[in-house]
């Protein structure tokens, strides 16, 4: 969301549907001004499913990611961080991706692989 600072108030994008134009408006006082550019940018941060070692190290140290008591298939460590895939189509199943908390290992696997392992045991 793009905001412009005017007299210590943030102006947020607002659509004028009658005149079909983009405005910036203050949520407190109602001040409005027409946008110079009709494009509003949205910044999204996506976690890549496969990444570099540095990114994985950042993932396992990220305190905002939930931790699971999952045994790593590579080193046997009993803890991993996990995050959900961001599938783009509506028929996709929810997949969780795990990263081993052991800095020497940092193995990645998914909940799909867990299901395959369970199928082999059954």
TrEMBL record:
Subcellular location: Nucleus, Nucleolus
Molecular function, one GO term: zinc ion binding
Alphabetized InterPro entries for the sequence: Rpa12/Rpb9/Rpc10/TFS, Zn_ribbon_RPB9, Znf_TFIIS
Keywords (A to Z) from UniProt: DNA-directed RNA polymerase, Metal-binding, Nucleus, Transcription, Zinc, Zinc-finger
Keyword Nuclease attached: no
Key word Nucleus present: yes
GO biological process: maintenance of transcriptional fidelity during transcription elongation by RNA polymerase II; transcription initiation at RNA polymerase II promoter; transcription-coupled nucleotide-excision repair
Source species, domain of life: Eukaryota
PROSITE patterns in the cross-refs: ZF_TFIIS_2
Occurrences of domain TFIIS-type (ranges): 68-110
Gene3D superfamilies: 2.20.25.10
Gene Ontology CC: nucleolus; RNA polymerase II, core complex
Principal place of residence: nucleus
Summary of subunit composition and partner proteins: Component of the RNA polymerase II (Pol II) complex consisting of 12 subunits.
Similarity-based family: Belongs to the archaeal rpoM/eukaryotic RPA12/RPB9/RPC11 RNA polymerase family.
Protein name: DNA-directed RNA polymerase II subunit RPB9
């Amino acid at each position: 969301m793009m905001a412009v600072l005017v007299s210590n108030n943030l102006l947020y994008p607002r659509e004028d549907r009658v005149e079909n134009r983009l405005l910036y408006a203050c949520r407190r006082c109602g001040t409005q001004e027409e946008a110079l550019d009709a494009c509003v940018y949205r910044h999204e941060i996506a976690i890549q499913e496969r990444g570099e070692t540095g990114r994985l190290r950042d993932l396992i140290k990220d305190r905002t990611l939930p931790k699971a008591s999952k045994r790593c298939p590579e080193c046997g460590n009993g803890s991993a961080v996990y995050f959900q895939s961001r599938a783009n189509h509506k028929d996709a199943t929810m997949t969780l991706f795990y990263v081993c908390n052991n800095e020497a290992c940092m193995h990645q696997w998914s909940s799909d692989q867990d299901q395959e392992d369970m199928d082999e045991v059954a």
